[in-house]
Design brief:
alpha+beta; Gyrase A, domain 2; 9 helices; 4 strands; elongated
Length: 194
């Protein structure tokens, strides 16, 4: 699994600060060295709608369809592009193997191998990929890009960093959090220290 930042608002702190100050008709009070504290104050007080004016786009690769499905459940403020199993031959895609399942019964490796072989056989016999894919396990890997506004991004992190979240989506959330810590520490400081 790999998570990379593809693109983002060039100066999200500026954009968020100016948008928030527009709401309060206080643009004259905008000071570069005060922006981070101002935005952190907005976050702390729950006035987070102005975070929607900044975005980040992430490339996420090598995740299972199960994980991808959990991520796309975050619909508000997010856009997605997911590797198609309808048009792409996914026979050689990897498989995310849950360690506990592997430790319980290593025949799950054979199960996946048989499913992939069956998929290949169907495709070779002119069964459309969109039909053959129905026989593949949900642990098959895929790639996706996700664009989130910063408010949606924070919501995603709040939910998916939880110990109650599934381990694979927790991993994706931790990787996104690392990127955010590096680029925009003011955005996630309370999620780390809180």
């Amino acid at each position: 699994m790999k998570v990379e930042l593809l693109d983002s608002t060039v100066d999200p702190l500026y954009v968020i600060s100016v948008c928030a100050r527009t709401c309060y008709n206080s643009r004259a009070k905008d000071k570069v060295n005060k922006r981070a504290d101002f935005v952190k104050g907005l976050i702390k007080s729950g006035h987070t709608s102005t975070l929607e004016n900044a975005i980040a786009t992430f490339d996420i690769s090598g995740i299972s369809r199960v994980c991808q499905n959990q991520i796309v459940r975050h619909r508000i403020g997010c856009s997605y592009c997911v590797q198609s199993m309808r048009y792409v031959d996914v026979a050689d895609n990897e498989f995310v193997m849950p360690i506990k399942a592997l430790m319980t019964d290593d025949s799950c490796v054979d199960f996946v191998s048989k499913a992939k072989d069956f998929y290949k056989k169907l495709v070779q016999n002119d069964v459309p990929k969109e039909d053959a894919r129905m026989f593949l396990p949900l642990g098959m890997t895929c790639n996706m890009t996700v664009t989130m506004n910063f408010r949606a991004l924070r919501h995603f992190l709040e939910l998916r960093l939880s110990k109650r979240a599934q381990w694979e989506v927790q991993y994706v959330a931790r990787e996104i959090l690392k990127i955010c810590q590096s680029k925009w520490p003011w955005l996630v400081e309370d999620l780390i220290n809180g």
